[in-house]
Design goal:
- About 35% of the residues lie in helices and about 35% in strands.
- By secondary structure, the chain is of the alpha+beta class.
- About 15% of the residues are buried.
- The chain folds into 2 domains: about 60 residues; about 90 residues, Sandwich (Immunoglobulin-like).
- Bound molecules: copper (II) ion.
Length: about 160
């Protein structure tokens, strides 16, 4: 029992150290390397150019939407953004890509017979290197805690058995 009490500073100290490591690895809000993507999106019957846009999660996205032929629209799934664009008058859409995944953008103005097929895709890549690093730390902490718990348990068992 006495040995277990002597081990207590070590048992508490290591998880605290591990937690400090986790806190150190997590960047404070606003310190992420978010960039601004300026994208020119041209809408024509019946497609968007580009048809696919890649950004990283947390990035600021500025879309300059233009229509070359007739009135088109832009509706972004998941983000609920909608804009109408008339030929010759560009529209600017600014948002933060805070949700990771694939989101379709589609024309929201009936622009002709093939209007329903006027679809593009926004790909928001999740910040996987960061999450992978966090996951590794969590696994390491979990392993450390399991090890400490097992060794602590064994020692107390030995103490109980030997009667020390
Ligand atoms: Cu359309």
């Amino acid at each position: 029992m006495q040995q277990l009490l002597e081990n207590r500073p070590r048992l508490i100290g290591l998880p605290v150290l591990a937690l400090m490591l986790v806190v150190w690895l997590i960047p404070p809000p606003g310190a992420t390397h978010a960039t601004t993507h300026e994208i020119s999106l041209d809408a024509t019957q019946y497609e968007y150019a580009p048809g696919r846009v890649h950004v990283n999660q947390g990035d600021r996205v500025v879309i300059t939407l233009t229509a070359a032929d007739v009135v088109h629209g832009f509706y972004l799934d998941g983000y609920g953004l909608e804009r109408r664009v008339e030929p010759g008058v560009s529209q600017q859409i600014t948002f933060t890509a805070d949700k990771a995944g694939k989101f379709r953008y589609r024309c929201s103005v009936s622009c002709g017979p093939l209007h329903p097929f006027m679809i593009g895709e926004l790909v928001v890549e999740s910040n996987t290197p960061y999450w992978r690093a966090t996951g590794l730390v969590l696994v390491a902490v979990g392993g450390m805690l399991a090890y400490l718990w097992l060794t602590g348990k064994n020692k107390s068992y030995q103490e109980v058995i030997s009667g020390k």
